[in-house]
Amino acid sequence: MAEEENCNHDCSSCSKNCESRDMRAKLHEGSSVKKVIGVISGKGGVGKSFVTCLLACAMNRKGKRTAILDADITGPSIPEAFGLSSTRIEGDDNSMKPVTTDGGIQLMSMDFLLEKNTDPVIWRGPVISGAVKQFWTDVIWNEVDYMFVDMPPGTGDVPLTVFQSLPVDGIIVVSSPQQLVRVIVEKAVKMANMMNIPIIGLVENMSYVKCPKCGEIIHVYGKSNIEAIAQNYNLPVLAKIPIEEQSSAAIDLGTIEDLNVNYVDKAVDSILAIK
C-alpha cells in the first residue's frame, strides 16, 4: 500500500515490476462487465453527470444491460437524477449490490453509503481513489453490457485511478461553449492520450437555447469552440446538447429515465461500434 501511495505514476523512471505494469483491479468474481466507458470533463459545471445519465438511458433503451459507476465520490449526483438519493445499499463485509432503477440501470454511488445524502465526504485523494476501486471490485455487477463511469472534473487522482485500474474501452469528453473551457478540455484530451485511453469523441452541453416561439437558435455562452478542438485532435463531435427546461426538470424531479431525447444517439452508436 505504501509503495502505491508513493508512486509518481511515471513507469519510465521506475524499477519496480508492478505485476508486469498491469495495475488493473480485479472485478468481483460474481460480476460481469463487458465494456467500460469513462465520461470526463476538464472542469466542473459543464453537465458531465447529465450527459452520463443520457448515455446510460439511451443505451438502456436499445436493450443493452447498462450501469453507472459514480466515481465522483465527494460530489455524487447520479442518484438524485434517478430519484434514488434516499436509497441505501444492500451488502455485507465481502460484497455490495448496486441499486437498480425502474428502467433496470444498475447504479453505485457514494450517496448510497451515507447516512444522509447531505453529509459531506471529507477524504484525501488516496482514500477517495480506494473507494472508486472498491466500487469496481466489491460490487456485484449483474451481466452489464455497458458501464458508464461518471468521473469528477479535472485530471487528478480519480481519473488517474480509473484509467489505471479499470479496463476502460474509451472515453467521452464533455465540454461547454465558453472560451475558458477550451483550454480545460484540451488538458483532459491530452491526459487521455498520455494514458493511451481511446477517445470516442466530444460532447458539448449547454450548446444553445432554442426560442420556444420562433425557433431561433441563441448561443447564450457565445460561439462554440468544440469544432476547432475536435479538428485539432482529429476527434468527432458526437453531440451538441441545448439548454432546455424539460432536461432541468427531469434532473430535479429524479425522472431522467422518462426524458426520451435523441441528443446522444450518435454518441451511443459510436460506443456500440467499439469492438
Describe what you observe in this structure:
- With 275 residues, the chain is an alpha/beta fold.
- Helices cover 31% and strands 18% of the residues.
- The protein has nine helices and twelve strands.
- It has helices spanning 2-6, 48-61, 78-81, 125-137, 157-165, 179-194, 226-232, 245-253, 265-272, and strands spanning 33-40, 66-70, 90-91, 96-97, 99-100, 106-108, 144-150, 170-175, 199-204, 209-210, 217-218, 237-240.
- The strands form three sheets. Strands 5-6-2-7-1-8-9-12 form an eight-stranded mixed β-sheet, with helices on both faces.
- β10 (209-210) and β11 form a beta hairpin.
- α4 packs parallel to α5.
- The two termini are 34 Å apart.
- Mean pLDDT is 88; it is low at 1-5, 8-13 and 17-21.
What's the structural blueprint in terms of helices and strands?
Elements: H1 2-6, E1 33-40, H2 48-61, E2 66-70, H3 78-81, E3 90-91, E4 96-97, E5 99-100, E6 106-108, H4 125-137, E7 144-150, H5 157-165, E8 170-175, H6 179-194, E9 199-204, E10 209-210, E11 217-218, H7 226-232, E12 237-240, H8 245-253, H9 265-272
Parallel strand pairs: 1-7, 1-8, 2-6, 2-7, 8-9, 9-12
Antiparallel strand pairs: 3-4, 5-6, 10-11
